[in-house]
Amino acid sequence: MEKIGLIPNPTKEQAIETVKGIIDWLEKRGIEYLVEEESAGLVGEQNKGSSYQEMAVEVDLVIVFGGDGTFLNTARHFAAVEMPILGVNLGGLGFLTDIELSKLGSALEDLIAGKFEIEERMMLEAKVIREGEKINQVVAVNDVVITKGSFSRIIELKTYIEGEYVTTYPADGLIVASPTGSTAYSLSAGGPIVNPKLKSLVVTPICPHTLSSRSIVTAGDEVVEVEVKADHEDIMLTVDGQTGLKLASGDKIKIKHSDLVTKLVKLEDYNFYKILKNRIQFSDF
């Protein structure tokens, strides 16, 4: 491990203070580091500031300090180079940032000692087709969501899988999630929990105006196509709940697995079901 990238959430004081401590820890062990440029001044290391592009070619892995939102933003920045990412949880649920602050010291020791594995997570690719032409293309770690505006009427989402018409959802929206994203917005909308090592797409309607709508889990190599129908213009496509673009009635969105993957650093004691139990707090009957 020659050089590590440090990416704290600059809006969280705890993240900034934690990174200051990590810098001392790394310097005592002679390990080089870079700090994301927006946060470098906040931790007093302006000369170590680095853009995502510079980090992509200079560091061996990055450590993210924050919540899953910080992790998702980082993962999309490094998607093209498949940078290994370790997440330290300073947010809420933290399915992606699974290292707790109380265990950070031992986690760093294991990291430097090479006691970790790289777990590849499937990403999504979505293309927006308007009048037969591709107008946009995005990649996502968790999910791609088609949704109406806050004050608009429901929209109709004509859904195909592998070219086969499946159903039309009259709903507030539709979530197409990766297995990693199955514990995010899709779960809140009633979707299933899928082991993140699997390759699949999870299609979940948001507030469907019907008694029969259910989530659908597809094979990982299948394509989901959604045609949007609405009598208003307040329709959005959002990526991981962080970036978005406006859609129009008649647009078609084609969603499939991406050729890119997100690489997560997982320490030796990592277990998805242990994280799931701790985060979801299943009741014992």
Biggest sheet features: 12 strands, mixed
**End-to-end distance:** 46 Å
Whole-number tally of structural domains: 2
Kindly state the number of beta strands. Answer: 18
Which percent range fits the helix content?
10-25%
Number of H- or I-type helical stretches:
7
What name goes with the CATH superfamily of the largest domain? Answer: Probable inorganic polyphosphate/atp-NAD kinase, domain 2
Name the CATH architecture of the largest domain. Answer: Sandwich
Subcellular location: Cytoplasm
Catalytic activity: NAD(+) + ATP = ADP + NADP(+) + H(+)
Pfam families: NAD_kinase, NAD_kinase_C
Protein name: NAD kinase
Main features:
single chain, 285 residues, alpha/beta, Rossmann fold, Tumour Suppressor Smad4, 2 domains, 12-stranded mixed sheet, 6-stranded antiparallel sheet, 42% strand
Q: What do these coordinates show?
A:
Strands 1, 2, 3, 4, 5, 6, 7, 8, 10, 11, 15 and 18 form a twelve-stranded mixed beta sheet that branches. A hairpin with a 2-residue loop joins strand 7 and strand 8 (133-140). It contains seven helices and 18 strands. The chain is α/β, with parallel strands linked by helices. It folds into two domains: 3-115 and 268-280, 3-Layer(aba) Sandwich (Rossmann fold); 123-259, Probable inorganic polyphosphate/atp-NAD kinase, domain 2 (Tumour Suppressor Smad4, Sandwich).
